[in-house]
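re: the backbone from monday

yeah here it is again, tokenized this time
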């Protein structure tokens, strides 16, 4: 069974940090581009960052530039999202997704496999 599982979410104060993990089971992440998306209540799911199978990254949400970074550890079959200087507007359910297509994308329909999501709440 092909599965992505996110972990690392939780409640954090403004200015704090979290590291989300996206672990794959049933398949190898080496061959996929991995995106992180988020969805806040009442809003559409939006692409945040992506890392290609070759390790290059792209940021799709201007508000996270300089604060969020994406990395992958193929040996652990895991992709990470490091989130620093968190703000209340970062509150959302965060999803990782895998795409076997030609490159990274911010578009939901370009991804083939999705995790169940992990809640991130930034509040004092």
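seq for it, each position gets an aa:
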């Amino acid at each position: 069974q092909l599965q992505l599982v996110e972990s690392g979410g939780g409640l954090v104060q403004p200015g704090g940090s979290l590291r989300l993990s996206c672990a794959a089971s049933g398949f190898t992440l080496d061959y996929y581009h991995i995106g992180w998306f988020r969805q806040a209540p009442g809003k559409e799911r939006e692409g945040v960052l992506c890392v290609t199978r070759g390790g290059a990254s792209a940021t799709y949400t201007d508000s996270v530039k300089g604060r969020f970074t994406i990395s992958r550890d193929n040996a652990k079959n895991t992709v990470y999202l490091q989130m620093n200087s968190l703000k209340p507007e970062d509150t959302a359910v965060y999803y990782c997704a895998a795409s076997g297509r030609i490159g990274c994308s911010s578009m939901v329909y370009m991804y083939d496999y999705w995790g169940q999501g992990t809640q991130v709440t930034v509040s004092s």
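The two ends are 39 Å apart (CA to CA). The mean pLDDT is 96.
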